[in-house]
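Help needed: design a sequence for this.
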């Protein structure tokens, strides 16, 4: 909730209800605990994205549903995505965090890329668009949605932005 730098070991002890020594014995230090949590988050996110890709509907409908599900998840929890937060807070100065955040983006982009290729084959998305680049654009938009919500706390606006993104994907 607070981010890595603003969270103290005492915050962790209080929140988790564990003895400080138990945390150190199990994880070593705050950074190791954070990396384990981020690793678990990235793995869980990959499973979630793969599940979304299995939704019913045309490929473009599945893409739209996945985008909306990710947006709603970030709005419902009223918390930023841990991977996004980690990217902005630590990725520039912590290579391990950067690699985990990068892995998260790559896994999510790959799921969208596969769906985009299917949508192109179905004539739902223009074939002259680069699927990998378009997937990266979609995934990058999630950070923008999170930023917009963090600043303005306007879920209606974020939903409209997501709808515009989905609309822009369709064929001419």
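Sure. Designed sequence:
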């Amino acid at each position: 909730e607070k981010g890595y730098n603003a969270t103290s070991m005492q915050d962790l002890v209080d929140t988790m209800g564990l003895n400080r020594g138990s945390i150190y014995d199990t994880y070593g230090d705050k950074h190791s605990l954070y990396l384990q949590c981020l690793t678990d988050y990235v793995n869980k996110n990959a499973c979630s994205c793969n599940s979304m890709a299995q939704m019913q509907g045309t490929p473009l409908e599945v893409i739209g549903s996945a985008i909306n599900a990710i947006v709603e998840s970030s709005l419902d929890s009223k918390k930023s995505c841990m991977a996004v937060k980690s990217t902005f807070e630590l990725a520039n100065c912590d290579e391990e965090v950067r690699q985990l955040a990068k892995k998260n983006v790559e896994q999510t982009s790959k799921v969208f890329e596969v769906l985009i290729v299917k949508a192109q084959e179905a004539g739902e998305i223009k074939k002259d668009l680069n699927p990998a680049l378009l997937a990266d654009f979609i995934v990058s938009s999630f950070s923008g949605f999170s930023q917009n919500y963090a600043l303005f706390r306007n879920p209606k606006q974020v939903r409209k932005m997501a709808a515009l993104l989905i609309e822009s994907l369709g064929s001419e």
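The first helix runs from residue 9 to 16.
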